[in-house]
Structures are given as C-alpha cells and as structure tokens.
Amino acid sequence: MSFFRRKAHTPQAVARLARHDDRDAVTRLLQSADRRYLTSAHAEVPDLLAADPSSVIERDGRIVGVAGFGWRASPVVWLRTLLLHSDLEVIPALRDLSAALYPVLRADGITLAAVTVDDWNDPWLRGPLGYLGYHPVVDVVGYEKRRMDRPSAGNQTVTIRTARPADLEGLLALDAACFPLPSIKGPELMRLALATSPCFVLAEFAREPVGYAFVTEHHDGRLLHLVRIAVAPPYQGRAVGVRLLAEVVDFAAARRVDFLTLNTQADNYGAQ
Predict the structure, then answer these.
(1) Residue 257 phi/psi, 5° resolution?
(2) Which of 131, 157, 175 finishes a domain?
(3) pTM of the model
(4) Distance set, CA 122 to CA 92, 129, 245 (Å)
(5) SS3 at position 62
(6) Which helix (H) or strand (E) holds 127?
C-alpha cells in the first residue's frame, strides 16, 4: 500500500475545450473545488463558461479542472474562472488548461493574458503563474470611504449626465486614451457596465466626452465599488475627476451605502 496520495494529473486526465454538456459537471466542481479563482458570483459561472473561451480537465468522466478567460479587449484577455480539484497539481493543471485555450485566443487576436492576484489567491496562484511565464505588471492599492461627504465639488464647467448604450464607442476611445495595457476596458465589459451599473456618469465639455465613472453594487446595496474613473489626457489636472468622484459620492449618499471603495495603481500618485 502506498502512503503517498496519488495525483489526478495522470495520462488519463485530458485537457480539452469546454462543451455545452459540461455545465452540470462544472456546477458540481464549483461546489467541491479546493482552489477557486472567481471574478463573478457562483451562479454566473456556468453561463460564463458557455460564453467565454474555456477549457476543462476531464478524468474518468469527471471534470476536475476548469479555466475560462473573458473581458476581451484585444490584445488583452483576463482570467475570469479557475477551478481545481484538490488532487490536481497547480502548475501542470494550469499548463494543460492554458495549452487548450491559447490557440483559440490567438486566433481571436489575443496576445496578452492577464490575471488579478489578491490576498485570497496569492498563496497558491502567484508562484505557479510566475513559473509558467506570467510576470507582475502593476500593483494596486485599495481605498474605502465611510462618510459620504464631498471633499470638493470639482469642475463645474463640465456637464454630467448618465451614460447610455449609444455612448459605447466614445467610451471605448476615451478609455483607451486614458489607460495602458492591460488596464483598458473592452466592449464586452463596457456593454455590461452600461446595462447593469446603478451609476454610470459621463462628463462632457462642449458635447465632447472628457471623462466617465461607474460603480458596481455589492452586499445587498451596502457597498458600492468605483470600478473606473477616467479623464481624457487634455483635461487632466482640471478637476474633472474630482467632479466625477463628487457625483459618485452624492449617489452613494442618496443610496445610504455603508462603504464606497476603489482601487488605483500604486504608482498613480496623482489619483491618490
């Protein structure tokens, strides 16, 4: 009898692209996986894997590993879902799941795969990612606000209005002008934000879009997260961002939220 636990990553474990009929097996793995990397609610994962480029590791008719990339903004794609059974070794599993997906992503014009690593997944994910060729690009710091008061009203010459689906192309161009790779937002994420954000505001000067901001809602509305605040380079330093932030704070105050949070790059000293 062997006293060493056998790993599931054997020749019988095969990596392949996900199929529609994997849905139930993925749902079961979602409940049992010891290692989870998720960027959405549990209930949304099966639908994401149907829409996003995704791969699975199958062994003896069971799904024991899943990876899905989404939020495509060519040439960038983001890891959105990773589920690994406890018996899988992380590095071989990541390698095999990625090998099944990379040809699909390359055919879609993707040349950069990005992953957000935080305190929850750092212990088991950062090392294997580095071993497989991923390298740090940017460090992010988080802030939270509990008192919903305006420090400043910001620029009063710009017009603020709610963003609409018809603004999509202008928002994408504005975002690309404001942020480097891999931080740009693509049409997939921007459309979702326009459709679901409770507060998506656009700043205009002479009817030209010069900035925007949007939030997501969490914990039954007790927390708002400021996902993005962007100002066109020619208008930076003119308190347009301050005005956008003031609008978001007013919205949070009207909603009586407990927290307003945001993240920014560690080297973005102007924003901090």
Answers:
(1) -75, 160
(2) 131
(3) 0.80
(4) 18, 10, 31
(5) strand
(6) helix 122-131
CA 191, 195, 201, 203 dihedral sign is: positive
Please report whether residue 120 resides in a domain: yes
Contact 101, 52 (CB under 8 A): no
Range of the domain at 176: 140-265
In a domain, 102, yes or no: yes
Q: Are residue 125 and residue 53 in the same domain, yes or no?
A: yes
Q: What is the structure's pLDDT at 48?
A: 83
**From CA 125, how far away is CA 36, in angstroms rounded?**
10
Structural domain count, the chain: 2
Give residue-wise pLDDT tens across range 157-195.
999 999 999 999 999 999 999 998 888 999 989 999 999
Same domain flag for 39 and 101: yes
CATH code, domain with 21: 3.40.630.30
Q: Which residues of the chain have pLDDT under 70?
A: 1-11, 265-272
Q: Read off the pLDDT of residues 76-116 as tens digits, 9 standing for 90 and up.
A: 999 999 999 998 999 999 999 999 999 999 999 999 999 98
